[in-house]
Amino acid sequence: MYLTDAPHLRILRLLRDEGPVSRAELGDRLELSRPRLLAEVERLVAAGLIAEAGMAASRGGRRSTLVELHPGLRFAAVDLGATSIDVEVTNGRLEPLAAYREATDIRSGPRAILHRVNDLLAKAKAEGVYERLDAVGIGVPGPVSFRDGVPVSPPIMPGWDRYPVRELLAREHGCPAVVDNDVNIMAIGERHGGVAHSVDDFLFVKIGTGVGCGIHLAGAVFRGVDGCAGDIGHIQVEPGGPACSCGNTGCLEALFSGAALARDALAAARSGESPALAQRLAAARPARSGSGRAARGGSESGAVVTAKDVADGAAEGDIACIRLIRDGGRRVGGVLATLVSFANPSMIVIGGGLAQLGHVLLAEIRSVVYRRSLPLATGNLPVVLSELGSRAGVTGAAVLASDSAFEQAS
Amino acid sequence: MYLTDAPHLRILRLLRDEGPVSRAELGDRLELSRPRLLAEVERLVAAGLIAEAGMAASRGGRRSTLVELHPGLRFAAVDLGATSIDVEVTNGRLEPLAAYREATDIRSGPRAILHRVNDLLAKAKAEGVYERLDAVGIGVPGPVSFRDGVPVSPPIMPGWDRYPVRELLAREHGCPAVVDNDVNIMAIGERHGGVAHSVDDFLFVKIGTGVGCGIHLAGAVFRGVDGCAGDIGHIQVEPGGPACSCGNTGCLEALFSGAALARDALAAARSGESPALAQRLAAARPARSGSGRAARGGSESGAVVTAKDVADGAAEGDIACIRLIRDGGRRVGGVLATLVSFANPSMIVIGGGLAQLGHVLLAEIRSVVYRRSLPLATGNLPVVLSELGSRAGVTGAAVLASDSAFEQAS
Predict the structure, then answer these.
(1) Coiled-coil region(s) at which residues (chains A, B) (predicted)?
(2) Residue B66 forms beta bridges with which residues?
């Protein structure tokens, strides 16, 4: 939060992030004169955004009235992944009042997916979680024109190019809506309630189905000229390496991502190179062969080994599993060393599904980054795991939703 | 320039960048009320920063008075390279009134180098170019703490670490001083008077003795947490490649930079692989053997071939020269493709001594960037040569100097 932001925004964000505060403290904290503060508070009460919340404990003189965000405020937060939908409905303080998660396929297209989103929100409404929404925030797994509220040429989202996501959600729910890239909302979430709390310059690296990077500079998400800043999954790390969905070869994402790890782990299981994975593959076959998940798998037998299997194998000391993780970490680390030299951030956060590979992955990434970047840039550079895990995205979407509702109150 | 900047800054910058303007036009352009504008102008006249400059042409009604920056304003701009000092003294509009260039070695340390800078400025004073300076701006070839005005752990500048450059220059000349990285001032210069005029988000890539990148985001230089953002010369591009001065191997700078090209060109001349370079080497020997330059060269015979020789050889169709340039362009292009995926800029400017390799270099860089980055980020991405060439640095230093003088007027 910056002193240059409008007073109403600073008041609303402080109440969102810290809860009820007395009028007196609010004036002190935000360096607002008493008449200015009272006028702003009165206006925000009239707008239904804040409410009185009893008397504050005495500070010696006259007791001051507490104010808080209106208890009826409701934000919808949506995190669309390549294979999942996460929806939360929160109160003004961004505490989840309802949360839904279901498997999906982003390739079914915007109509079907947004229909599911609206169904989940209708369910929350029917359960009495809200009467009306004050704003909707949504993240999608591809580049977004933040200004226009539409995905732009998203490689893994056929049918979504320039689809009016923001407009349709705003119309459906009669409130402001905001659309951003999935990695950007994860970065925003981690800064709001995770390990990057109050950090102004950091990179959030998501390693999941795809690989991407949320860039937080000078306290705000940096999106680039076309909204595709942070698209690091298609950086070439091995000339002549495996083919990538983007049409090039040797991209980071083709070498290390959820899909790439599943491919390499299956190969290690089948060749017997990894006894731990071979055992899991054998155990998985009868149990999973009839499930929807296995049926969607690409392999002939329908059998799969997962990132979790690799993490468990590594924990048991399986050499091949450890090697798979370290190879991946080395590749991610090489790209991050370049980005550290370029951007000189103050923290790197690793999130997404493969963050469950944990400290073996982290140790390898750190080793490469610390060795390959200049000492000045790494002398005080934490490389850490996401604290919020799979909730980072919805948390950031709720932050964006609340910001857009607050901005409308000007 | 942003509407959120203080009015006096906006007035001074507009007069600097566009010359004399009538009071009436100034008010319109900066969206300032007439009383506010008159008060600011009066204050800046009293402070000796602006002056009246006659009557404007009539706009139909009463004729308005022209104002301009005070004709006595003088800024000193200094660009320290690894092997050269450039000094300019400019008027308020940043037009050079005197310019000096001499060879040096940054490794002679801060006392000797700053002594030379002050000698050159004393010469300008003795020649009547100025009576007193209003600000000094200086760029140095290494990381800088912009806030503290000191170099920080600069790899090629022994003795300069935390040396109080800003403080000493300010005391010596009795005016504000400002210190920045050499690549940052080149980026600022190119934006002020070059090909990046008014472009808000661009990368300025300097390929000279070393390799670095000035990052301009949202209209301002981005310096990173420790001031070393843009230090791209030490990004690894070839594992196991040649040793670099930083202690690692295969850094971009070890493979393609002024020093690396001189090394590779000399090898191509000696092996006879390049007839054009062999011829130049033979011709250079007698002519250069007694010169100071050859005496400083590292090779046993003292013979050198230069980037200019390689450029000329390529222009004559010498295959080895063309290959040297294309190999270098491919390596720079690979790093830039990564940075384009990460930062999604709206322009890339190539400057520094090796920019004289011209369109052969540029074509190779473009080819790699356009092939390796996502279409969304490259659809509208010019990759161009610096317009200001060797004057980019001093131009940017003058811009920084004027900004610091203007800021003091608050």
Answers:
(1) none
(2) B22
Looking at chain B, the number of H-run helices and the number of E-run strands are: 15, 15
How many whole angstroms separate alpha carbon B61 and alpha carbon B174?
44
What average pLDDT is seen over chain A? Answer: 90
What would the mean pLDDT of A294-323 be, rounded to a whole number? Answer: 77
Pairing of strands B347-351, B383-385: parallel
**Segment A264-299, tens digit of pLDDT:** 999 999 999 999 999 999 987 655 444 444 333 334
Instruction: State the number of CA atoms in the 13 A half-sphere of A8 facing the CB.
Output: 20
Q: What is the pLDDT of residue A245?
A: 82
Chain B residues with CB under 8 Å of A382 CB are none
Q: Among candidates A265, A247, A234, which has minimal Cα distance to A327?
A: A265
Q: What is the rounded distance in angstroms from the CA atom of residue A304 to the CA atom of residue A312?
A: 15
Nearest to B342 among A339, A374, A380 (CB): A339
Domain ranges of chain A: 7-69, 75-190+392-407, 198-386
The alpha carbon of residue A166 is apart from the nearest alpha carbon of chain B, in Å, by 21
Put simply, whether B157 touches A (Cβ < 8 Å) is no
Asked whether the beta carbons of A316 and A276 are under 8 A apart, the reply is yes
| Beta carbons within 8 Å of B138's beta carbon, 6+ residues apart | B77, B78, B79, B80, B117, B165, B169, B177, B178, B179, B180, B397
Q: How far is B358 from chain A (nearest CA, A)?
A: 25
The pLDDT assigned to A62 comes to: 67
* Ramachandran region, residue B152 (left: φ > 0; alpha: ψ -120 to 50; beta: rest): beta
Question: CATH fold of A198-386, please?
Answer: Nucleotidyltransferase; domain 5 (3.30.420)
Structure tokens at B206: 């300097």
ipTM value of the model?
0.86
> Can you give the pLDDT at residue B58?
67
- Per-residue pLDDT tens digits for B86-131: 999 999 999 999 999 999 999 999 999 999 999 999 999 999 999 9
Would you say A154 and A140 are in contact if contact means Cβ atoms under 8 Å apart? yes
Domains A7-69 and A198-386 share a fold: no
Task: Report residue A209: phi and psi, to 5°.
Answer: -50, -45
Q: Between 3.40.50.720, 3.40.50.2000, 3.30.420.40, 3.90.650.10, what CATH number should domain B75-190+392-407 receive?
A: 3.30.420.40
> With contact defined as beta carbons under 8 Å apart, do A183 and A204 qualify?
yes
Is B376 within 8 Å of A228 when comparing Cβ atoms?
yes
Q: Which of A124, A160, A123, A170 is nearest to A140 (CA)?
A: A160
A50-54, A68-72, A388-392, A402-406: lowest mean pLDDT where? A50-54
From chain A, the residues in CB contact with B332 under 8 A are none
Q: Pick the residue of A225, A248, A336 with the most B CBs within 10 A to test the interface with B by mutation.
A: A225
Which of B153, B342, B380 is opposite residue A375, by nearest beta carbon? B153
Instruction: Please count the residues of chain A.
Output: 410
Is the separation of the CB atoms in A385 and A362 below 8 Å?
yes
Neighbouring residues of B374: CB distance < 8 A, sequence distance ≥ 6: A155, A228, A231, A234, A246, B341
Closest CA to A13 of A4, A24, A1, A27: A1
pLDDT at A60: 67
Measuring CA to CA, which residue among A157, A1, A191 is closest to residue A80? A157
CATH number at B197-386: 3.30.420.40
